[in-house]
Structures are given as structure tokens and as C-alpha cells.
Design a protein that fits this description.
- The protein has 218 residues and is mostly helical.
- The protein has eight helices and no strands.
- The protein has helices spanning 2-13, 19-49, 54-77, 84-106, 111-130, 133-141, 144-172, 178-217.
- The structure holds retinal (RET).
Length: 218
């Protein structure tokens, strides 16, 4: 329900910001919309079968995580010209991370190797937004307001996103009973989504509003 409310908020607030920031806010709203919809499916699976709704969770992630990654590209594009390579590196890292994670969780691959491959996809994304071209463009060409939003967003990608591999580890790699660890896995993933989808969107909203007000003032 928080995801539904956040969706309404982001869409309505697009009216308040200048044209080049509208896309970023629309994407934030799409992320929470797609996730809310999948949570209804996930809840039904959980209630009906008592099992982890892995397939719906990953259908959600394969749509929403690339959209979250695009936000880095979009907020930089709102202020300067960004080469397409930045976009593609973020997408490739995301796909490696999610496809390997799915194969591990769904039983198509052993859980440990899948974990390692998935971690390396995530590491690649982190490298791009800190030390790679995306990080450099931010440091060199972005106004201060955008820089601080970019930095907060990438902190979320490190610490907020770390919750998922921890959940995977607790759910699959600790060797406790499957029943109790599945509950843990789902609680951890659910809480992580609140932070990484709603709070992430709110950061973008903050910079979109403040940058828009600046350009109106000028
Ligand atoms: C809105 C949903 C988000 C931001 C989901 C993010 C998911 C991850 C960062 C998942 C990462 C994983 C690893 C790094 C290793 C283990 C397998 C995953 C897929 C849980």
C-alpha cells in the first residue's frame, strides 16, 4: 500500500517540476507502480501456498531494477550530455546480477556459484557509479544539488541493496530449516524494497523540486 501511495505521489508531483525533471519522477512512479502490482501477486502466492513467490519477485526486479539504474543516467542527462556506454554498462551489470540470482533461487544453478556471479554484477554497477564514467561525469559536470542526490542514490545502491544478498545468504546459505529461513528471506526482501524503491524515489523528487525551483527563480 505504501508503494501505491508513493506512485500517486510521484505522478502528481511531475506537475510541479520543470520539463527535464519530469521523466525522472515518472520513472520513480513506474518503479513503485510495477512493484505494487507484483506485491499483490506475491501476497496471493504466499497466502495460498506458503512458499516464496520467487518468480513474481524476479519479474518485478527485472523491470524495476533497470528502471532504477536508468535514473542515474537520467539525472545526469538532465544536466549534461552522457555517452550511451554508461547506460549499457549499468544495464549489463544489472542483468548479470539478476539472472544469476534467479538461477540460484529457482534451482537452475547451485546457490553458491550463482551468489558469486550475482555479486560480481552488483560490484560492476558500484564501480561504474563510483569510479567509472558515471561517477566522473557527476563529479565534473553536475551542479552541487545533483551531485549530492547522485551520491545519496549510489550510497543506497551499496547499503540499501546489500540487504538483498544478505537476505539470499540468510535464506539459502545458512543451512537452517527452509521453513523459518523462507520467512526471514521474504521479510528482509520486503523491507529492502521500501527503502530502495520509495526512499530512492523521494531523493530524486527532492533534487527535481529544488533544481526546478532554481531554474524558475532565474
Ligand atoms: C526494487 C528492487 C531492487 C532494488 C532489487 C535489488 C536486488 C538486488 C541488488 C539483488 C542482489 C543479489 C545479489 C547481489 C546476490 C544474491 C542474489 C541477489 C539477486 C539477491
Amino acid at each position: 500500500m505504501a508503494l501505491v501511495a508513493a506512485t500517486a505521489f510521484f505522478f502528481v508531483e511531475t506537475q510541479r517540476v520543470t520539463a527535464k525533471w519530469k521523466t525522472s519522477l515518472t520513472v520513480s512512479g513506474l518503479v513503485t507502480l510495477v512493484a505494487a502490482w507484483h506485491y499483490f501477486y506475491m501476497r496471493d502466492v504466499w497466502v495460498a501456498t506458503g512458499t516464496t513467490p520467487t518468480v513474481y519477485r524476479y519479474i518485478d526486479w527485472i523491470i524495476t531494477v533497470p528502471l532504477l539504474m536508468v535514473e542515474f543516467y537520467l539525472i545526469l542527462s538532465a544536466i549534461t550530455k552522457v555517452p550511451a556506454g554508461v547506460f549499457w554498462r549499468l544495464m549489463i551489470g544489472t542483468l548479470v546480477m539478476l539472472v544469476a540470482g534467479f538461477m540460484g533461487e529457482a534451482g537452475y544453478m547451485a546457490v553458491w556459484p550463482a551468489f558469486i556471479v550475482s555479486l560480481s554484477g552488483w560490484a560492476f554497477i558500484i564501480w561504474e557509479i563510483y569510479a567509472g564514467q558515471a561517477g566522473k561525469i557527476n563529479a565534473e559536470s553536475a551542479p552541487l544539488g545533483v551531485q549530492s542526490a547522485f551520491k545519496l542514490m549510489r550510497t543506497i545502491v551499496v547499503f540499501g541493496w546489500a540487504i538483498y544478498p544478505i537476505g539470499y545468504f540468510l535464506g539459502y546459505l545458512t543451512g537452517s530449516g527452509p521453513e523459518s529461513s523462507m520467512k526471514m528471506l521474504n521479510i528482509v526482501y520486503n523491507l529492502a524494497d521500501v527503502l530502495n524503491k520509495i526512499a530512492f524515489g523521494v531523493i530524486i523528487w527532492t533534487v527535481a523540486v529544488s533544481e526546478s525551483e532554481k531554474s524558475v527563480a532565474k
